[in-house]
């Protein structure tokens, strides 16, 4: 088995198209990690002229401006931020129009990440509308952490009116969120979105490598020779699966290590300690910091990747030729994102959870499910937080698809 | 050692056929294969490849059973595949492989120990005159060389049962002679089943032949036994070239040769009275083939 595995691995690694796909994955890991930095902008005024700095230089200035507020977000810090906001609003009216850019940079921007969360949790319990900064009191700011669970209750009562189980799960999860929150400047939401996009591309490339694994041999006729050999049935199917998984896992580990290293080196490793609740929503249910989120998205990506590969292996074992197999693989990769964009609704949500690649892509991704909305799905009488389903269902599907692959391969031509 | 086919049939679904959606590729075949070279003759679509794939265990019969020394091959699994070598009609290979890498890969699949495989590969490369191209990619080889690589992989495990589907197509006359000698040597105490359109290849080396038509075995026997049935039906005549058109519609021509004096020498299947002055000829397997498959 070991010798067969090594021979098969050597064979696969000699295939030009596979090497090309793997090289593309490596190049993309650097490119996709670097792109979010290019979106960074910092504008200031000098001698009556607006000057905009871009890229890493802009990021460095922004981090420097926000660094005095880095670390634990105490209620006093929140109150100080609110005070600065209200003071400047009193002088200049609002942040639009003639608000001086340099004042915004020095008085507002350093507090923005913190004060925005205060405004969020002070939203009206009936209609969810956030108040104006001038309507929020220092007292509100000092009781920020007490108000957070109450705001979650308000939201859940609005969003999950008919689903008490979902409200219970949310309250239970949020009770585990560590407070006070922490904030370390430099994080750019594009960074996490690009991680999601890169995971999708990685899944696409790996499934492209996988799609001809079995059907290529049906097409060339090589299959007849392999099948008539001692180990040409179950053992060969296992070895082919093992090799595909090995290559995918190594590619994933290598590419994600490069991506994470480049990305965090550019934005700052300390950002990983920022609480999820400061960046996306003060009532995000998950008790993780950005590093934890980055890791979780990566693990979810790995589960979806392995599940997708298992499914594509099954497709490959069932298709007559590589054209059909590749076509179906592309359709399968695109389906969750396309369906989510076009259809939406409960049916699509269930389908997304069932499809192995459902947690990868655009707005359907695991990352969005964790950060954007309170997504719950009912399965029979039980209610589940959707991100957990996006992790669990593909993981359960892996052995099923692999079993189907071996069965289909062994029974072919019979 | 023996292979026995008992009432073996294979049916396929054929949606294109109205009324009868089932195509009988192989129909109730009984055959007893004993050591020696067996020629399997038949026109295209007669069911030879399907029969060979079933003998190799790649395909299961719809009905009947195939036994190796009395045991159904479906129960033998790995053990049966360990004793067979198969070269299909279309020799599929991985384009990224060199000759040596390919043979090493197949040796691993056949479960041949590493050192033994190396010796065997060296030996086969020499015997098949492939030593000079062992490091060359298979895709860059000529058709004949590719075929020899295919034969090499089938021989790697010294199979007790060697099944070769059209093994000589693409080989030049010299290669065919070498191949026939190799097989004759190899077939001692082994069963070699060959299907080919090149009838002389089988005629020279096959101890026994089986003739297939429309999925059934028409006849089995030695070449002499088989050709005896057309004894007195093969003739040679010399005719003026302008009469060729007329005789073409009257008799079944096996071969014709233009002579220097403008006449034509015909070998044909028919009766002595068909062409005046025709001389009887000793029949060969090719004559029988054309007698049984006139459309070929």
Describe what this molecule looks like in 3D.
The complex is a heterodimer of chains A (414) and B (296). With 414 residues, chain A is mostly helical. In chain A, 67% of the residues lie in helices and 6% in strands. Chain A folds into 2 domains: 261 residues; 122 residues, no CATH class. Chain A is built from 19 helices and 6 strands. In chain A, helix 10 packs antiparallel against helix 13 and helix 13 packs antiparallel against helix 15. The longest helix of chain A has 34 residues. The mean pLDDT of chain A is 88. With 296 residues, chain B is of the alpha/beta class. Chain B folds into 2 domains: 225 residues, P-loop containing nucleotide triphosphate hydrolases (Rossmann fold, 3-Layer(aba) Sandwich); 63 residues. Chain B has 11 helices and 14 strands. A 6-stranded mixed beta sheet of chain B has the order 6-7-8-3-9-10, sandwiched between helices. In chain B, strands 2-1-4-5 form a 4-stranded antiparallel beta sheet. In chain B, strand 12 and strand 13 form a beta hairpin. Classes of the chains: A mainly alpha (414), B alpha/beta (296). At the A-B interface, helix 1 and helix 12 of A face helix 3, strand 6, helix 4 and helix 6 of B.
Keywords:
heterodimer; A: 414 residues; mainly alpha; 2 domains; two-stranded antiparallel sheet; 6 strands; B: 296 residues; alpha/beta; Rossmann fold; six-stranded mixed sheet; four-stranded antiparallel sheet; globular
Distance between the termini of chain B: 35 Å
Largest interface: A-B, 27 and 35 residues
Shape-level CATH architecture of the largest domain in chain B: 3-Layer(aba) Sandwich
Order of helices and strands of chain A: HHEEHEHHHHHHEHHHHHHHHHEEH
Estimate what percentage of residues of chain B fall within beta strands: 25-35%
Order of SSEs of chain B? EEEHEEHHEHHHEHEHEEHEHEEEH
The oligomeric state is heterodimer
**Any idea how many domains of chain A?**
2
- Contiguous runs where pLDDT drops below 50 for at least 5 residues of chain A: none
What are the low-pLDDT stretches of chain B, counting only 5+ consecutive residues below 50? none
Structural class of chain B: alpha/beta
Task: Look at the structure and give the mean pLDDT of chain A.
Answer: 88
Number of strands of chain B: 14
